[in-house]
Amino acid sequence: MLAAIATSQSATAPLSGLVLEDIPKPEPRPGWSTVRVVASSLNMHDLWTLRGVGHPPERLPIVLGCDAAGYDENGTPVLVHPVLADPDAGLGDETLDPNRALLSERHNGAFAEYLSVPTRNLIPKPDWLTFDEAACLPVAWGTAYRMLFTQAGLRAGDRVLVQGAGGGVASAAINLAVAAGAVVYATSRSEDKRREAESWGVRKAVATGERLPERVDVVVETVGEATWSHSLKSLRPGGTIVIAGATSGTNPPADLGRVFYLQQRILGSTGCTRGELVSLLKLMDATGLRPVIDRTLPLAEIHQGFQLMIDGRLTGKLVIHPQGEPS
Ligand SMILES: NC(=O)c1ccc[n+]([C@@H]2O[C@H](COP(=O)([O-])OP(=O)(O)OC[C@H]3O[C@@H](n4cnc5c(N)ncnc54)[C@H](OP(=O)(O)O)[C@@H]3O)[C@@H](O)[C@H]2O)c1
Hints:
Blueprint: E1 2-6, E2 18-22, E3 32-41, H1 44-51, E4 62-63, E5 69-71, E6 77-80, E7 83-84, E8 101-102, E9 114-118, E10 122-124, H2 131-151, E11 159-162, H3 168-179, E12 183-188, H4 191-199, E13 204-207, E14 216-221, H5 225-234, E15 235-243, H6 256-261, E16 265-268, H7 274-287, E17 293-298, H8 302-310, E18 317-321
Parallel strand pairs: 11-12, 11-14, 12-13, 14-15, 15-16, 17-18
Antiparallel strand pairs: 1-2, 1-4, 3-5, 3-9, 3-18, 5-6, 6-10, 7-8
Bound molecules: NADP nicotinamide-adenine-dinucleotide phosphate.
NADP nicotinamide-adenine-dinucleotide phosphate binds next to helix 1, helix 2, helix 3 and helix 5.
């Protein structure tokens, strides 16, 4: 089967280690299911692996891809919860299992025609959701769901700032917060992405770093250094920043004086539980919300997809079709 494999890592030329290759289909194993992958989607996580961030070189080669939707061995349409972990080891929350692994970290990922995952990680795909839409949800939308509802405890009417409107997680957070009845502000480097965010119901989208019309209750951060100071300054006293990523760098000035004097809460967030992914599906059913898809590409053109992500030219999610484009 065809698969996109990380074979080496480079901070400056990450795509040099991305190889398309024919490899054997995964062998059946007890407690695990083989999924025929209809759709996957690209995440920054795939790029970090190729850049050598958060993925030790001894775990190469590995098939990339954290998101999958397809058919299990019984022909049932499924999506895959991508956190491979033991809920008991995380005191009931598998994202807190010290040994948790995201798909493609320790086990081959979803940029392949077939994928092997623990059967517990399969969730039936509702028929109102397409395979393309389902493949966008587990990482980006699941992460955004946990950030807003579990970590920040978002309530209708809250003011929310989402940094970097064009991102997969950010576009999900914007749409989820709007659907939950929040007043949402967003930033983006791109005028086009700001206009698009406003078409999703954002009250005002501003250029990165520009002052907001009011202070917010919640900030959704995935950009990091480039927006951190603006996030702290935009937050009301007692407000919450939830951070799940730092694309532009991990070490901005801490501005500790502001944090303690204004009693700001800073919460980390990673992935989501299987239960949160199921709750996300229920919310989408209730509201009619669907993921923002920039475009789809066959697996054979995945290098082009990575380049679009590197260049910051995507708005929302890029879907990959491992079985080729449907005719
Ligand atoms: N903790 C978790 O479980 C988890 C899950 C998913 C993602 N993440 C992390 O979250 C981050 C975003 O992931 P993604 O998949 O959503 O990536 P993505 O779709 O490529 O989005 C990248 C984001 O970064 C912004 N950005 C990049 N460079 C910037 C700069 N110099 N200044 C301002 N904004 C900049 C973009 O905003 P504009 O283009 O609109 O300006 C966009 O929002 C990544 O670091 C990823 O590793 C973490």
